[in-house]
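Lecture notes, part 5. Sequence design as translation. It can be helpful to think of inverse folding as translation between two languages: the language of shapes and the language of residues. The source text, in structure tokens, appears below.
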């Protein structure tokens, strides 16, 4: 039994995520967590909401709520949606937790002790009417690059150029609209990433099994232009983790908070501590996942994220950990995803374009979405959601291939032999061939799942469903029953066992359908069919089963057209 730590990139708090976000980290991480539990490994699967920074403050102001209340509410909303999609986190935490406050301050203190923090005086825009500094999105003005008049202090949305608030032409406060601004001196902390460059490069070079996509992104940031830069880790904001040096005050930094990019990844660790708190565990219980001096030496750590998050996870967060000089667990394997596009364009949170998690669940259960998204995961390249493809995939793979097999076999069995696994006949050449074929395919499927090859795994699972249908087609129990009832019983005995095996294999992709299949088969035996001949006899003659409700329904052309129209424009 291995110990597997899995983290999904943590979703930002300001709103409901779309399906592109879901398939870029949380959903494939869940697939991998479920698979590893099924393998009998000890799994810790962690996710949280990313709650600090100016977007949260501004969204709360727009909603007319204190930012603490806004974040608490949105965390609840995201938590419910995660449950709706059957994301099996061991804990879904919050980056605003006291655990993260303490750990973030701890890391900053250690980095300072090791000479890796610089205090830098810089000029920032101060709003006299608002009586505060205006970092990032708190300031709006005309882009010096393209002339767009509503560019934000951190980036121009029109031309995507990264900006500094002092770059803007005709700047104004995003809070009050005031132009009564001046540039003032303020002091900030910088993490000296340049000093850690060689250590980071040596660590990345040691990861010979990482995908090219991952290492090439990391290397680009390390080496391009002037190379890796020192980065500000504090902000003049109200909402965030107060700047402290461990448990001591940080003179000169009063009233400032850590910048969200610094505290967000530390939440992976803090969230595991939150898990311990929520489950009556001790510090030792979470530390054995994260501290190599306290039991985590045998943990393998996997991270899941969209490709835009790779630099943070290969450079910034490791810089924090390596710089601390403490034996914290570093990532072993990083699985990154390209983008999912939507019906000829992009998903867009700001424009409300595409299908959002709440909308998806309001029209179809989680399994339909899980299957399509995972079987079309944007791994080697971007992929695209279209309603035609979604309808075709659901109707064919789920309804025709899997659902129909389960329905046909159980109904026929009950009508001819009653609700117990029939005892007659022996397995013949067709059954032996199917078992051999299944053995090879299940081994391939298991290997793809282990390697986090999501699309290949989905394709193999679909092929495993298909060969069951082909077997039934050839074995034809509905004809055989007329001439050789004992042989028909043997066919059905195998087919009922096949349903249990399908339930076990399919559980990481479609957990609800899997549960329904196991319940209908009257079993809680979830053992992975490493030994296929034995698995095909797991439900013995005389074992009771029932006919399940229809597992999957088809999507009609009218529904498809209706949804296509409904989700084409701006989210209301
Ligand atoms: Zn611009």
């Amino acid at each position: 039994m291995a110990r597997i730590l899995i983290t999904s990139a943590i979703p930002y708090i300001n709103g409901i995520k779309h399906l592109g976000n879901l398939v870029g980290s949380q959903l494939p991480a869940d697939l991998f967590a479920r698979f590893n539990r099924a393998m009998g490994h000890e799994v810790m699967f962690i996710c949280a909401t990313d709650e600090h920074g100016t977007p949260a403050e501004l969204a709360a102001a727009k909603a007319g709520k204190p930012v603490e209340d806004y974040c608490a509410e949105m965390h609840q909303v995201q938590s419910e949606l995660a449950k709706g999609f059957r994301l099996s986190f061991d804990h879904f935490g919050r980056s605003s937790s006291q655990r993260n406050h303490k750990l973030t301050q701890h890391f900053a203190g250690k980095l300072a002790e090791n000479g890796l923090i610089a205090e830098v005086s810089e000029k920032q825009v101060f709003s006299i009417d608002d009586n505060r500094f205006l970092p990032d999105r708190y300031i709006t003005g005309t882009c010096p690059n393209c002339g767009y008049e509503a560019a934000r202090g951190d980036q121009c949305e029109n031309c995507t150029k990264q900006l500094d608030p002092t770059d803007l032409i005709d700047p104004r406060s995003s809070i009050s609209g005031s132009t009564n601004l001046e540039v003032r001196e303020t002091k900030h902390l910088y993490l000296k990433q340049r000093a850690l460059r060689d250590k980071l490069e040596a660590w990345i070079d040691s990861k010979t099994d990482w995908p090219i996509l991952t290492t090439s992104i990391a290397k680009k940031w390390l080496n391009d232009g002037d190379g890796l830069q020192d980065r500000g880790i504090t902000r003049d904001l109200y909402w965030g983790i107060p700047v402290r040096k461990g448990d001591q005050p940080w003179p000169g930094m009063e009233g400032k908070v850590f910048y969200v990019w610094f505290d967000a990844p530390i939440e992976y660790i803090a969230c595991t501590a939150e898990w311990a708190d929520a489950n009556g565990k001790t510090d030792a219980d979470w530390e054995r996942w994260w501290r190599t001096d306290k039991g985590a030496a045998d943990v393998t750590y996997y991270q899941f994220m969209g490709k835009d998050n790779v630099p943070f996870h290969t450079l910034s967060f490791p810089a924090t950990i390596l710089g601390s000089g403490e034996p914290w667990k570093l990532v072993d394997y990083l699985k990154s995803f390209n983008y999912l596009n939507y019906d000829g364009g992009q998903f867009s949170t700001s424009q409300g374009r595409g299908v959002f998690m709440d909308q998806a669940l309001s029209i179809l259960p989680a399994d339909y979405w899980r299957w399509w998204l995972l079987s079309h995961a944007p791994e080697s390249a971007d992929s695209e959601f279209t309603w035609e493809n979604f309808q075709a995939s659901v109707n064919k793979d789920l309804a025709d291939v899997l659902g129909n097999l389960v329905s046909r076999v159980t109904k026929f069995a009950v009508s001819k032999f009653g609700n117990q696994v029939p005892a007659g006949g022996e397995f013949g050449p067709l059954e032996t061939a199917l078992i051999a074929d299944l053995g090879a395919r299940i081994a391939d499927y298991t290997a793809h799942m282990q390697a986090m090859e999501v699309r290949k795994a989905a394709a193999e699972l679909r092929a495993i469903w298909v060969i069951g249908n082909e077997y039934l087609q050839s074995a034809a129990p509905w004809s055989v029953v007329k001439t050789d009832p004992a042989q028909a019983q043997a066919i059905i005995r195998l087919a009922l066992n096949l349903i249990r095996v399908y339930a076990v294999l399919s559980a990481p992709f479609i957990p609800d359908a899997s549960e329904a299949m196991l319940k209908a088969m009257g079993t809680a035996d979830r053992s992975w069919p490493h030994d296929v001949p034995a698995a095909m006899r797991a439900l013995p003659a005389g074992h009771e089963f029932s006919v399940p409700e229809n597992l999957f329904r088809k999507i009609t052309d009218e529904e498809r057209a209706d949804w296509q129209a409904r989700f084409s424009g701006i989210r209301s």
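The translated text above is only one of many valid answers, since several sequences can fold into similar shapes. The first strand starts at residue 3 and ends at 8.
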